[in-house]
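ok posting inputs for the zinc ion job
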Amino acid sequence: MELSDLYREVILTHATHPHNYGALDHADRKSHGANPICGDAFDIEIRLDGDRISDIRFHGMGCSISKASASMMTEMAKGKTVKEFEELLDKIEKLVRGELPPNERASLGDLAALAGVASFPTRVKCAILPWKTLESAIESDE
Ligand code: ZN
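and the output
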């Protein structure tokens, strides 16, 4: 199986059966993010325990890439501190732009599948949207 086929498989699985999908009860912070070019629009809701993301859910609609990215992001972000999330976001931004060295991809697990979007600039926006939305949810203070 080609690596690109494996990546496609991971994306489709997450897009079809997204993890942590739905509304979050008693969310501390939330944000809405949209990518008008593609039609992706998601709400991300989080609960914070100090500076740790103790729970996270997302809902909305979008293409396979954005939905899979959101699903994988929620898996990775849950339990992380804000600082750890920011470090991860930095890696993901490099990954989707094709700037992350291959030896640093291993620690990303399924997220490494997003590397496939690097050759498609419009898809980079889809992949990064959920991450930027979570970032603004963290920064929001309602
Ligand atoms: Zn999209």
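notes: Helices lie at 3-16, 64-77, 82-96, 121-139. The mean pLDDT is 94.
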